[in-house]
Specification:
By secondary structure, this protein is of the alpha+beta class.
Amino acid sequence: MTGTVSPMLDRLAAERATGALLRDHGTLYLVDGQVVHAESPAAPGIDVLLTSTGRLPAEDWQEAVDRAGTRGRVGRFLVDSGRLAGGELELCHLSALFDAAFFALAPGSGPTRFRYGAAHWLGRIRPVSAAVVERESRRRRQLLDELWPYPDTDTAPVVRRTTPSGQPVTRRQRAVLDLADGERTPGDIARALGRPAFHTLIDVRRLAAAGTVATPRDAPPPPSPVPAWVGRVADDPDTALLRRLRDALEASL
């Protein structure tokens, strides 16, 4: 999969622009041409990832927003006040950034606009180059298509099949299945579990390929067994990647 994801993002990176790149499915925030944060209605924010798991009490998050949000230093406040370790915040922030950027940069996500000078209240935590963000978005889309090539599965409600498929189900997938009630979308399930949306999309497409959940594009299970490599994709596909990305970013400084 080649080619640019967003020509405007490439141009803004070359200009070392600062501001907000707005698209129908999300927003990327840039400082000096680097991506410092991303948000999307399709992806749980960093607040959900931190508070829903119990790692950070909701009242601590709200205090940080109230006291440091207007100065764009919420992330710095969480570290300086001892609520989070710096490395922990960086990994969670990278997870939220790549998760939201994947949806914001999705093909056909509408017109692109840029608001020069706009800044995010979270503040600058771990800038990422536009090239890395685009490359990771392409990698994720290719992985999803290899698992189950029907993207409408990502946005419509999914429901567990009444007849067991016989395929093994991991603990992470079991949690997804418990919420696959025919009304929740993968995004709804991700928010309920406090997980990145991309993780949930991987689980849903794996389950769809195995015939364990019914989807909008309800094709019969494949005539041959699901390839073994599908089951070997890590249950937590972002953690190792994020650590490698962070190490590479540090090495390039």
